[in-house]
Amino acid sequence: VQSKHLPAQPPAMAEELPVSSVGGRGINPGAWVKRAAAAPDEEEIPEDWGWPADAFSLEELLQHVRQATGPPAPHDQVDPHAFERGQWYKVPDAGETCHVYVHNFTKDITAEQPKNFLDLTDADRKKLGVFVKELPDVLRRIHDSKRRIPLVYGSEAVCDVLRNFAVYSAGWQLLDTSKLKRLNPKVLEESRQAIVAAMKHGKMLCVYLGDHICDFADKVCVSKNRDTFPVALFQHGGLTADSVKERLYRPEDKESGQCVVRNGFAVHLLVAYDGGLELSSARQSELQQIPGLDDMEEVRCHCEEDRLRLVREKAGAA
Questions:
Q1: 40-80 pLDDT, tens per residue?
Q2: Residues annotated as region Disordered (predicted)?
């Protein structure tokens, strides 16, 4: 599948994240994303350097920069080991007038680009796509303005974040279609309940496709299942048609006899990469089993773990 309609990159990419976006209305992946594992050939940091055991998070570093009172340090006042190990982030300064570089172990702040700072190219940024924290706003714009269903691609780490967010966020609802691999009345009814719950409460329905995409076109969205898993799920606005709602809603779902759909209801699909930050040819072939695929808007999404992995790959190739 070719990414024909990728949205413009938002400003909040991980290596150049605006201070104002941290702690905002978007997804906070900090509680769910594991710290990226060290590369197998990465040397341990000597204890006599006095560095902490773990690197500071991006949020902690941004807070540190925001609270800084003095000017950025010249390189001769920075821990010299910071030019050998660790990671530098390029972030807005405290006044958000220019950028500075902050080290993820020493918290040193400098205005001059360090020699071991690895910047990402435009091609890298395109490969990573939208930062996960900014995804909800991107999904809403695609749904409301472009009137398309977003098809989100992400690593397993991103999928973990979004599945958890869909479970615990008041504004999202999870529909895990990986359970449909064993098609039976129970899983179909659970799917119907998730769809109706999102519609009734005006939620964003996250349709997770799992590590094996079902044959929705020929096996799931068939005539006998239209009361539980209609093909209209894969059509923008398809579920709000009266004929579809009447089949989906049960008497206990209705309010004063009406099939209510509250404002805010929207649908997006979530697919996991199966080859680094790419889809294998087999996974791309599986995508063809999704009805209405050509009318969807493709969105690549990444988390901090993905960015760090890409930076390490670039460092290893340098």
A1: 334 688 999 999 998 888 789 989 999 998 899 999 999 99
A2: 1-25
CATH topology of domain 124-307: Rossmann fold (3.40.50)
In the chain, domain spans:
47-117, 124-307
User: What's the pTM?
Assistant: 0.73
Query: Hey, what's the torsion of the CAs at 92, 98, 100, 104, to 10 degrees?
Result: 10
